[in-house]
């Protein structure tokens, strides 16, 4: 079972959402593993949430609007589910991600080296979950910048709730052990839950990667 692999076939970007619905049926029954759930630890939003949102805020971060030039970096299909405290999917959650480009530059005026920013990298994307709680982005594998191990920032917004922010990391990345934000998660299981494999997509000629990061919220929406 590997939905991101199914999603990673070369397709025009307008078909992303269609492909996602195909993958939905492959996910496990809601609530099946509720006992094993680890609530995703909240982590700092950090200083680089875009100070001016891009005009294009869709779930494909490697193409800005209808540009013919892709972002520089290792293309990664980043997917997962937004789950409630019982392990059931949360619908109508807005998932936002932001990260630096392949040169370590954020979509933010305070970012170092902003003159070198990759103009073809969107830097930010949004996805509204449906009944399966799934989200999907096409982005790049995050890179390190001074003081931080590679990571992708997440914000989850849900009506009536405070914004929830966290970060996702690459399994096997040697700098993880020295990262202050990641080490700030005191509980070892909670810390491990935000570190995921960025694995090669089988038969991808372009060398694409897939990463799956489920986010378990600390509440259950009212029915
Ligand atoms: Fe960051």
Features:
223 residues; alpha/beta; five-stranded mixed β-sheet; 10% helix; disordered N terminus; binds fe (ii) ion
Report the radius of gyration as a whole number of Å.
17 Å
How many individual β-strands?
Answer: 10
List the uncertain runs. 1-15, 21-32
Distinct helical segment count: 4
- Categorize the overall geometry: globular
Percentage of residues in helical conformation: 10-25%
Helix/strand-derived category reads: alpha/beta
The major sheet is characterized as: 5 strands, mixed
Order of helices and strands: HHEEEEEEHHEEEE
Mean pLDDT: 88
Q: First CA to last CA: what distance?
A: 30 Å
Walk me through what this model shows.
This protein is α/β, with parallel strands linked by helices. Helix content is 10%, strand content 22%. Strands 1, 4, 8, 9 and 10 form a 5-stranded mixed sheet that branches. Bound molecules: fe (ii) ion. The site of fe (ii) ion has 5 residues, from strand 5.
């Amino acid at each position: 079972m590997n939905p991101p692999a199914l999603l990673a076939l070369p397709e025009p970007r307008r078909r992303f959402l269609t492909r996602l619905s195909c993958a939905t049926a492959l996910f496990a029954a809601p609530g099946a593993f509720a006992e094993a759930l680890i609530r995703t630890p909240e982590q700092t939003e950090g200083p680089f949430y875009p100070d001016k949102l891009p005009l294009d805020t869709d779930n494909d971060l490697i193409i800005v609007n209808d540009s013919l030039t892709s972002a520089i970096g290792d293309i990664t299909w980043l997917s997962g589910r937004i789950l409630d405290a019982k392990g059931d999917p949360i619908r109508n959650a807005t998932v936002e991600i932001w990260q630096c480009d392949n040169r370590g530059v954020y979509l933010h005026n305070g970012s170092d080296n902003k003159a070198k920013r990759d103009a073809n990298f969107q830097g930010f994307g949004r996805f509204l979950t449906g009944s399966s709680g799934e989200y999907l982005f096409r982005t790049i594998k995050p890179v390190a910048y001074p003081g931080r191990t590679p990571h992708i920032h997440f914000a989850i917004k849900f009506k009536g709730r405070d914004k929830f922010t966290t970060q996702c990391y690459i399994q096997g990345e040697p700098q993880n052990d020295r990262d202050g934000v990641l080490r700030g998660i005191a509980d070892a299981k909670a810390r491990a839950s935000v570190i995921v494999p960025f694995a090669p997509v089988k038969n991808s000629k372009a060398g694409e990667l897939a990463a799956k990061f489920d986010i378990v919220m600390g509440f259950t929406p009212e029915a």
